[in-house]
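A reminder before we start the practical. When you read a complex entry, don't treat the lines as separate problems. The point of joint prediction is that each chain is placed relative to the others, so the output describes one connected object in space. Small molecules and nucleic acid strands, if listed, are placed in the same frame. In the example below there are three entries. Take a minute to note the order of the lines before looking further.
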Amino acid sequence: MGRIALHDIRKSFGAVDVLKGIDLTIEEGELAVFVGPSGCGKSTLLRMIAGLDRPTSGRIEINGTDVTARGAADRGLAMVFQSYALYPHMTVRANMAFGLENTRMSRAEIDSRISEAATLLEIGPLLARRPGQLSGGQRQRVAIGRAIVRRPTAFLLDEPLSNLDAELRVSMRAELSALHDRLGATMIHVTHDQVEAMTMADRIVVMRAGRVEQVDTPLNLYNRPANLFVAGFIGAPGMNLWPAEAAQGRVRIAGGPEVALALPDGPLTLGLRPQHLVLQGDGPLSLRVELVEALGAESVVHGALSGGTRVLAVLPGQPGLKRGDSIALGFDPGLVHAFGAAGQRL
Amino acid sequence: MAGLKTMAGAVVTAPLGWLARLLDPPLRLWQRVAGQNGMAAFFLAPTMAIFSIFVLLPLVLNIAYSMTSGPALFLTERSFVGGAQYARLLSCENHFDFSTCVEDQFWTALRNTALFTVLQVAALIVAATVTALILDRDLRARSFWRAAFFFPVLLSPVVVGLIWRWILDRDGVLNAGLDAVGLTPVNWLLERDWAFLSVIGVTIWAHLGFFALILLAGLQAIPRDLYEAAEMDGTPRARVFWRITLPLLMPNMLVVIVLALIRAVQVFDEAFVLTGGGPGTATLFLTQYIYEVGFASLLKNPGLAAAASILMGGVLIVLTLVQLGLARRNERRSKLK
Amino acid sequence: MTFLLKRRGGKGWHWTDIVTFLWLGAGLMVMFGPAVWLVLSSFKSPAGLAEFPPTLLPYQAQTAVVEGHDNPLPLFVVTDAAGSRTLAEVRRVGTVAQMVDPANPAEIVRVNIADREPVRSIGFAWENYLGPFERFDFLRFTMNSVFVTVTATLITLLSSSMAAFALSKYEFRGRSAVVVLILATLMIPLSVILVPLYSIVSAVGLMNTLWGVILPTVATPTGVFLLRQYMLTIPDELLEAARMDHASEWQIYWRIVLPLSAPALAVLAIFSVVWRWNDFLWPLIVLSRPEVYTLQVGLNAYAGELNVQWNYLLAMTVITMIPVVLVFVFLQRFITAGIAGTGLK
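Here is the predicted structure of the whole assembly.
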């Protein structure tokens, strides 16, 4: 229950290709997160799955059945909209009952489902109020509650946390994850915030310009990004990416030193996360410190190599560095990423 | 082309600019005397002068007029009679038989106006709502359709009246069409009931687009994702209309209904040109009654006309206050969201 | 018909699609049809206009001069038991036409209208349009209407923008009172103050003048509020910067606020032009001498005569309609936007 498969989904609006061939399978009970920069097509893809828009070509299957031709109402899915889309003139209870009333469900059944959801989301005392009288966080719970009572095959959430302020976002993230565990239902979550994706997802679908760049668990995306884009997108602060040239086991970093690394000859890009650089007296990277952001538990050091190449390092604690210092950094060669001329992982 | 426009613009604004520059020195003087804020009085002066002389003053005078009698035009030459004109207007032996009234034409006009208002506004609002709902759909060339329905609104009432007088003539094209399909032609403008219905139909034709546009604005203010949420919920179309669209449109629609009522009570221009109040007094409405009694008939009675217009004004003021109240309530409600 | 509508659900017809289709189709015919019929009818000769049932296009009947009749008589082809022949019609009474053979004018033949066909070709009676200018004061009416419309619009733009400026950019005691007062004038339609307004205009000596028509209509609350709404969006910092530059308030109004309000002024100008061109009741009351009639009053006067000359009247109606049609074709975007914005004020 709740397995969604997409086969070669394409969507064009006139001359503009928004989705350029998406193949994807969301497993039963999975919390999948679609993440990517704005304009990458993630919301469009969600709407295709929901049935609110039709793909120009391709197939969508839910639990093995082809639903491409079916309308949104007949797919058994529930959606939580970015703006929550609560009916402003109805009470919270009426909002949640509305969809159920369209089926011939008994009043008793409807009421029991509503109280179940209300207890789960702690919105019981709000049932008699109108959306206009609720805070942003409360409205979001009502929107989720409206989806829960329908007992859908899968939940679709379109940037549900974007409209919340930062504090609320953190707590709601945890709550949504807990909800997913409770319900065990398939959830597809769209966001532009990669931290959200990393913390919540079972698997992340990284998208860019209408294509899927990589689908994997958060840690796999972090440890083995498949290409330059994913490498730079996942992880904050972003990975250091240095153009370099490899020749016979030695790699010269542009504007910097030569290091010993076994990589195929030719031009490439070296990637190294700021957190993987350590202070090492005899380390290969000597740089001049330009800026130190002291955060207490760690320090973000901005610097430049001898040739001007920029380096970002996140060092633990408070190493007492200041602007103008010359330091040497080292790294574990096993943590280095290398990407070929076309951006793919080597 | 752009160069021509700027040149033309310059030609038009040059003398105005010259005039404005001329006015600057004396106005600076005024400003020195009155202060920066005091200049507001200067800017308000023309509008307030016009309003005071041509709207507020007449309103006050009208009350005075309604309590005078005599044929003279100027108030000073008239004699005070208190509420006699009102008494004359409203007195009837039997209020259900207009022939027993002193001013039977007033009562006829009153009844005609009331009946017209109820029927015309009901039909107009239903038609305008249907039109707005259709225009709200995802149509190609939407602005063309909007414009199409709006076209008659721009026509002058005289033109409207004459167009339809020509079409509804006993030998006009409508009757020709009826004849061609085998139905009996109707003398639209010379049979009492048909003339009344014709006035209703023509005024609806002339104003439908205006109200449809206002309702359309109200429909377009409803967030689209509410409809998408309803679609995900599998809501049938009728239910979407009754439970979502209509309730959310209702505040806007109430204001529109009151606006339509206010206009309907004052019906004159198109009706006057179309039927002139006839046949007989079948389509005589209040405004025409006031016009005839005050100006057009040989027995001009300004005092009586004033009294009738005060009575009509009373109804209108109530309606306008209702409308303003509704508009204010809508504004407040939408700020809460 | 998909080029006209996108249908709900993509494929298949829902009943709302059928209703939409029918309503739009009917709407198109009903909204434009009467005006189109007016224009077509205005090109018909009096004979063409008298025909029943009327033809779609204007035809010029072929006529013949028949002895004993002053005017040329229209020719018809009559088909009866004796075959076809061409006769001239003297008059028609109901469904029976009295006709004569041009060669034998003394004998009147009664022919049922169903048995005859007019002899004619498509022709436009342009003289319908020239006649009003030659025989009636139509040019004068037009000039009067133009004068009233242009002058009233200019004054309205000036006074409304000044008032809107005062109400949007100044704080002063009594500002709310002024707003209420202006709102109050919204509640007082013309029909309620006809008699005293007439006496005031008369007392000032403006009876039967175009200025008597213009002045009472010049101040519109709708215009003031429309402009005020727009001026509220002009940042106050602009005015403050100008004041620091020693600009007078008048200069601020004239050189900064007014130009920046151009879009709203344009909308108000269009409204005002349409309203003033179409005004009827007040000019009807104020103007009783034909030299000062506006087009609307003149049209009504000719329509009220005992012997209405429909061919001229229809042409005059078309001419009266033209400016508004031009506004419609070129400028209706502004109007519909303006109404959506202010509609309820």
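Discuss with your neighbour: Chain A is about 25% helix and 35% strand. What might explain this?
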